[in-house]
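This section describes the prediction task in plain terms. A model, or a person checking by hand, is given the sequence of a single protein chain and must write out its three-dimensional structure as a string of tokens. No templates, partner chains or ligands are provided. The sample shown here is typical of the held-out split.
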Amino acid sequence: MKRFIMYSITGIILVIAGSISYLIITEYILIRFPVLVQTNPKITFIIGNSYFREDEKAQWKIAVVGQTLYKGYWVKTDPDSRMDIRFHDNTAIQLSESSEMAIDSLTVKKLGLQIHTGSMYGKFDKLFKEHDLHVKTPTAFAAIRGTDLGFMIVPESAGNDSLMGQQKKSAYNKGKNKGQTLKTKGAEQNLDSGEAALQTLVYSLSGITEIYNPIFDDQKVLLSYRNKVIIGEESTPTNPEELSEDEIKTLQEKLNSIHFDEVLLITDKITFNFGSAEILPSSYPELEKIAEILKQKKVRVRIEGHTDDQGDAAFNQQLSEQRAEEIKNYLIGKGLDSERFETVGYGESKPIADNKKEAGRSQNRRVEFLIIEK
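The expected answer:
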């Protein structure tokens, strides 16, 4: 009997040791203090229509908030759509409209993303010295040491345009100028295929990122605080240029709007008296629906208030805080536990649409409910 017990204990120890060894070899865990465990990325926010597929040959499927992604997965967004993805507590990205990206590497030691079309903005953080973060595009390779970045793939002729809205130009009008030859920056591209020569614009707000064209990998440039670099299909990186104030503002807004927490729901149907935190009666049906959703989903949520950029920024900040608190009080009055709620206001600092148009301002005047604890 004693021998059987000893054999059993030995077997259990060997199984545990083998499992741990397998996880270490596959880089799912890293034995450090504290022990690091690889977390698969999760979609935290979607506007419009977004999709995923398990590999390059699989069929596209509708993506949803809360979905887990894995190594080899591809994701894409439709026009006027957007997807946010969190990789760990301090690294998340935003895939902008008309964009497509693949997860090339995903272990506790390595994260590799490949942008095929469109634009991606990310807040990156290296977990430790040997942590490998990199992003590939058709014309550039970026080794990231921890920074806030933007990547935009555009036709070479669009390289000097502004930061905003250029992803719409990344798809060349097939059939146009068919048979002609495009000459830009010394590169020739036959347009029979319907594709224009591409270049990548890389924007940085902080940190240091090593950028190069894979064809000329012996010529690199360090991209650091508030600068950008442009890399074409047959060109090496030039000296970084300083970002303009408009580019800095636009990039900061995009980075600020990235969702690290999963958005349970978002609504712009809750309205208030002008310049006030008083909820209008027309909002009650929407709040009733939200109360029912929260009664069914046993999660803690953070209520976030957002405004457009009209008026004084400090006033908008305070107003957004007060409105989030009023919504919390309304939901508590419907029988929900106050311990389930946190509130925060962001004022005009996290727009998700263009404040220059009324349609965009309407989207920015919103309330978001984010899951903060399962």
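For orientation: The chain has three domains: 2-37, 42-256, 263-373.
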